[in-house]
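Students often ask what a holo structure prediction actually looks like on paper. The answer is less mysterious than it sounds. You provide the chain, you provide the ligand, and the output is a string of discrete structure tokens encoding the 3D arrangement of the protein together with C2E.
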Amino acid sequence: QAKKAGRDTLRFFNPRMQEVINARISLEGDLRKALEGLQFRLYYQIQVDSSHHRFGVEALIRWIHPDRGLVNPAQFIPLAEESGLILPIGHWVLETACIQLKLWQEDVLMRDLVLAVNISAVQFHQVDFVAQVQSLVQHHAINPARLKLEITESSLLKNIENAITTMTALKDIGVGFSLDDFGTGYSSLQYLKRLPISQLKIDQSFVRDIVTDSSDKAIVCAIIAMAHSLNLDVIAEGVETEEQRQFLLDKGCSHYQGHLFSKPLPITEFDALLSQVERLKNE
Ligand code: C2E
Ligand code: MG
Ligand code: MG
Ligand code: MG
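The corresponding structure tokens follow.
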């Protein structure tokens, strides 16, 4: 009896809180097993220009959980970041992307594709990040100019000097950079000017209501103008409708990614989509 009471006093007061913590512990345990269990997949989403020509692709991680089924990154990337598991997961993502790039590089139809890979702040700020990327590029014999790393503003601002050094070193070997979710962070023009990036990616939260919301319109126009004046490419994410695409095109943004063109797809479906597009073009 006393033993039971003692144990109970150690429990969290709020049973809801205990539930949340238990769920988290169990998810973290599963996440640890997911890499060895080969439960991660990369999905691929096409990027197109104003003449609907595909020029790039973004790799997006998915977790195929044995019981929960398909788990989206929003449900596990934050936990992976807090627990440090993002380091082995992020390395797996980069390596899988390099292996895929190598396959595309050997295919006449695919070899001009640029593959964008999302990089977490913790991963990016590791002391040996440059060496990791360099060794993957060499080991898999890929053309570094076909690899683009997507970094967010907030991860740069964690240590701007280190970010500049890392990006400059990678740019020197030919790797490109895109600033993801642009507009949601706090980059100053001063920093933007110093960063060796080649692309700004307009966050989908601004694209969603672009046709109707006047402040979203203004923000998007400002981002496009800024990109042009800094000589950067600009791509809009989350483009779902022809009206959104037309608005963006009118304002000078000619690169798009979103469900209007395709959802992120598993590799076999993605390859099938691309070869279909190529076949139509050559007919
Ligand atoms: P992100 O890099 O900004 O990726 C864009 C997200 O928008 C993706 O969500 C994509 O599936 C989704 N999306 C694309 N087109 C549309 C559209 O037309 N409408 C809507 N509503 N959504 C669209 P996803 O795949 O769930 O990824 C969410 C975030 O998780 C990513 O945002 C990125 O920050 C992170 N993430 C994904 N894969 C990786 C990865 O391999 N490593 C790391 N560190 N983070 C990743
Ligand atoms: Mg991204
Ligand atoms: Mg984004
Ligand atoms: Mg995002």
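The pocket of magnesium ion (ligand 3) is lined by residues 180-181, 201, 203, 237 (CB under 6 Å).
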